[in-house]
Amino acid sequence: MGSTLLNTLFPYLFISLLLVAAAAHRPGFVYTRSRGRCTPQFWSGRREAWPRMVPETSTVSNVFGSRVYERYRSDLTLMEATARNDEEKNPFGGLVKEGSAALLNSYAREGFPYKPWQVKTLVIQALVSEATAASQAKQFSLANQACL
């Protein structure tokens, strides 16, 4: 009887496992806000020690250079930048949010597609216009979302 029950339940268990695996790999199947190990939300949540090269209290201007003064407060910290929620209406807000997360990932995640110097350079270059800032923020966001 035990093997008959197992033979009867096995197909249902197998299909259930396949559905769970498919749902995990199809965006939009079940709505969840991404909180992967590389997103700005992850870094602002303090779930992991920050890289020594960029402590939480580092200011955006100290990390990215003096050219960011024209777009951001001089005392804006990386922690505050990763916790921003104004990126929908403010492309420069999205740039600093995703760029800060990308910088942290470039130091903390082996295999991240950007090196620290590249993130810093791309942030500075994207400050020229809202369109450029939005485009670069999107590229950083894609890299941050794909990171493991």
Name the average pLDDT: 82
**Total helical segments:** 7
Report the major sheet.
Answer: none
Number of strands: 0
Unreliable runs: 17-34
User: Which outline best applies?
Assistant: globular
Give the amount of beta strand, in percent.
under 5%
Percent of residues in helical segments?
55-70%
Structure write-up:
Residues 1-24 form the signal peptide. The protein has 148 residues and is mainly alpha-helical. It contains 7 helices and no strands. It has helices spanning 2-25, 40-44, 60-64, 78-82, 91-108, 116-125, 130-146. The chain is globular and about 70 Å long. Residues 17-34 have low confidence and may be disordered.
Task: List the topology elements.
Layout: H1 2-25, H2 40-44, H3 60-64, H4 78-82, H5 91-108, H6 116-125, H7 130-146
Helix pairs in contact: 5-6, 5-7
Name the features.
148 residues; Protodermal_1; mainly alpha; signal; globular; single chain
What is the gist of this entry?
By secondary structure, this protein is mainly α. The protein is 57% helix and 0% strand.
